[in-house]
Design a protein that fits this description.
mainly alpha, P2_GpE, GpE family phage tail protein
Length: 39
């Protein structure tokens, strides 16, 4: 969840309301976005 907080600037309260499958979808988007930033 830390990667979501860093990439999307979300507080823990925002993420705690999400289901695991939703968090995993957002995690993938955060990973892709972080990779684009590092190129």
């Amino acid at each position: 969840m830390a990667d979501l907080a860093v990439v999307f600037h979300w507080p823990p309260s925002e993420m705690s309301a999400m289901y695991l499958d939703e968090l995993m979808d957002w995690h993938e988007l955060a990973r892709e976005r972080a990779e684009q930033r590092s190129d």
